[in-house]
Structure formats: C-alpha cells, structure tokens
Design goal:
It contains 2 helices and 5 strands; from the N terminus they run αβββαββ. The chain is α+β, with helices and mostly antiparallel strands and 116 residues long. It has a single domain, classed as 2-Layer Sandwich (HIT family, subunit A), CATH 3.30.428. A 5-stranded antiparallel beta sheet has the order 1-2-3-5-4, with helices on one face. A hairpin with a 3-residue loop joins strand 1 and strand 2. It starts with a helix and ends in an 11-residue tail after the last strand.
Length: 116
C-alpha cells in the first residue's frame, strides 16, 4: 500500500532499527518502547489487521509466532518471559493499519488489563 507506514519501512523507504529480516517478515525496535525490549514484527505482505486475515494467511501467522520465539531468544527474554500482542482496529488502539505484533519483555510486565 502506498500510504502505509509499515509497508514503507519494509520497502526500506523509511529507516528502522532492524533486528530481523527475511523474505516474509521484518522485525524492528519500536520508536516509543513500553519495556526494555519492545520489537514490532510485521509481515511484508500488507494486511490491515488480524481481522483481515484469511485461511490463506494461516501459514504466515504460524511462522510469525515461531519468529517471535526466535527473536525473544536472541533478545535474551525467552526464558524470563515476554508478551506478544496485536491490536485490531480502532477500539483496540491500533495506530498503524498494517498487521503487526508487539514483542515486549525485559522486566516484569504485571497485569495486562487494568480495571476501568
């Protein structure tokens, strides 16, 4: 997509702090980290969000999850633990309309949901 920030990052048009790249995926450090380790993992194929995935994307989604383990190990947080999450659409707080996972760790993350 021409206007997609993450597509531009994947294409090398916008610089990023890459931690991993292959033909299908790119992983880079978040510019506003919420933890000592905060990495975004994106498929290079443009998908707006998780709800936009189809059965055609099952293999890619499985690979993405295994890639998260590989990156967590490389970052030294596999054994201590990490959080892998994706936001889906406006009410979740998704800011960039390109499927992406946040790999977060490096310290105790506490409760995920606070009472409102």
């Amino acid at each position: 997509m021409e206007d997609c920030l993450f597509c531009k990052i994947a294409a090398g048009q916008i610089p990023s702090s890459k931690v991993y790249e292959d033909e299908e995926f790119l992983a880079f450090r978040d510019i506003a980290p919420k933890a000592p380790v905060h990495i975004l993992i994106i498929p290079k194929k443009h998908l707006a969000d998780l709800a936009s995935c189809t059965e055609e994307d099952l293999t890619m989604l499985g690979k993405l999850n295994l890639l998260a383990n590989k990156i967590a190990e490389a970052e030294g947080i596999l054994n201590s633990g990490f959080r892998l999450l994706t936001n889906c659409r406006a009410d979740s707080g998704q800011e960039v309309a390109h499927l992406h996972y946040h790999l977060i760790g490096g310290h105790f993350l506490g409760d995920f949901c606070e009472k409102q």
